[in-house]
Write a structure and sequence with these properties.
Layout lengths: L2 H9 L12 E8 L5 E7 L5 E4 L6 E11 L6 E8 L5 E6 L2 E3 L2 H16 L2
Antiparallel strand pairs: 1-2, 1-7, 3-4, 4-5, 5-6
Amino acid sequence: MGLLDQIKAALGFGGGGERGDRNAMLLYVRCSRCGDIVRVRVNLANEPAQDFDEGGDAVAGYTLRKTIVDSKCFRPIPLTIRFDGRRRETGREIDGGEFVTREEHDAARAARTSGADAP
């Protein structure tokens, strides 16, 4: 990695979470009302909140709470993802949408792009 790449990565203009960004988690969410699929990048180093054990002395895990808004119907889609103490996912919940794969996101994006090209 060159100096310019290191500066870009430090400023957040690096790989966009696809590859090489170990602190990034990409989520793909489909709105249950309009069907729009949204890609969301989560910074695992900063966004999840600490959950403490019962004594309040040690970190027992992390919880990410995020509300996503799509670009069609602008409906808020709240989600919660839980992590253990090493930031490994242990569970997820979503209200008003569903988690989908990157492939589904890419296919929807391609269909939207090809539909825009049609006369």
